Structure prediction request, 607 residues.
Amino acid sequence: MGTQAKLWQSLPDAPGIYLMKASDGTVIYVGKALRLQQRVRSYYQRKGTSLPTTVQLMRYVTEIDCIVTETEIDALILESNLIKAHQPRYNVKLKDDKRYPYLRVTVNEPFPRIHITRNAENDGTRYFGPFVRVRSTRQTMKQLTKIFPIRTCNLPLAEIGNRYRVCLDYHIGRCPGPCADRISGQDYSEIVQKVCQFLGGKTDAVVNQLKQQMQAAAAALDFETAAKYRDTLNDVQQAITTQSLDNVSATDEDVLGIAAKNDVACVQILRVRDGKLLEREHYYLNDANPDSPAAALAAFVKQYYQNAVFVPKTIALPTPIESVELIEKWLTEKRGNRVTLHVPKAGRLRRLVAMAMKNADIIVTQHEQNVVYSSGTHPALAELQELLDLPQPLRRIEAFDISNLGDRFAVGSMVVMEDGEPASAEYRRFKIRTVKGQNDFAMLNEMLTRRLHRAVTQDEKFSKLPDLMLIDGGKGQLSAAQAAMRAYEARLPQKIPMIALAKRIEEIFVPGKPEPIVLRKDNPTLHLIQRLRDEAHRFAVTYHRKLRQKALSKSVLDEIPDIGPKRKQALLQHFGSVDAIREASLDELLSVKGIPRRVAERLRKHL
Prediction:
């Protein structure tokens, strides 16, 4: 496994999410795991049973990042957030885009209602959740309407004058009937307030009320009712457990964690926007004292937020820092309203700080061990090397194409790609000299012969040899190129493999293989060689057009003495064409500015 093994060996054996990245840093897959190292390791140890999409994914993974969470449930929700934020290519199989259910209270309506939704938006309403199970969400809403009769229908109610017929919920005590003006707006608002308090976690007042009702029922010897209140309270408290990573009503927050080893410190930032943990970043601080993380953290806060585009309302810290009031005042002025720096002691923010601390410690440990994550090889080139079964990496690829109109203006192009990027300084172009008629195979053979001849004769412009030659065309073009190669193969210091790419269905022809290789249309390796082939075509066509335009700009007028560019331009502008000049009389020629009689007579005689 080599370098690839290091991608999972340094991961922690803890719950969290992992982000698989391509060589350009793009996130191409996001997954969750109860044990990160064990889960990621399985990608490298089950090649024989892997799905085709997994095999293709692993060809492009050059870096794996991770975020450690407290529980697998937290990882589940964070995975959903990151998939929506990054839209990774290899997560497209999750076509249902499953979202977690919330309870929504429409507090912006005259008589708010409660219902379940999977789309949490900033629309002026209150959202509570998310809930991991839809069943528990429905049970929560059912129990809440028993305790606090809030409507669940979607009738468009006004403040007064509602004349709808009451439904069954009214008759069984789960709705006070605002649809028929059976309750005042003020009394209904008190119900809504209690619902929001209870779902928002401010349960003390609500629980006290339930306890009072339970005790009153017990005092009245109504033990059945008292048991109902007891069971209802237990069910609701269990059902509305809030997840730590998602709360749509929360403000924007930055959560900081820090870890230091030797003289290097790492600060981890977890960015919470609209209540969702969407991204993280880490920064190194040099010359940091590992025994004084507070000083390093204070230095980071001042330096980082100096140039920050956005300053959140809340910045959660793992430890107190100096000059908090001064920094808060400075950031408040920068943001335009109150900014708070504080060290949470408990609750959701404290759990997020612990997560940031744990991730910072993992990163600084990996930094200290000098873990190499990147393989340094372009993934599409690595796959092409594997497909062609070549021993050496494809550092340099040359592509060849022909452009002609019959045997007129026939040209060839050589374009170069080095390490997956165009090397325009290495591009070369050829005028076809020996081929008569339209014979693309012979023209290609001439171009390759000249290219290889200049290589073996130590021409500096052609001294670099490719690791692969790409021919635009099919079997015929590949055979013509091979014939040129055979003539020089013994004189070359290395064997140069060849392939051809046919345009019709993008087949890759390989010498010695009867059947072409056909890749999926969305395969990045195919895209890479298509871009190179198209660049060779563009370069050849551009040169062909240049020669053709230069030839067309020549005229029979250029052969006549005393007819220079200015007189030629004046004549063509006046008459429009050489044929019109030929038909013109002497007097008409003399009417053109700058044409004296001597020149006009010579012009008529010549034409």
In short: Confidence is low (pLDDT under 50) at residues 92-98, 239-249, 370-376.
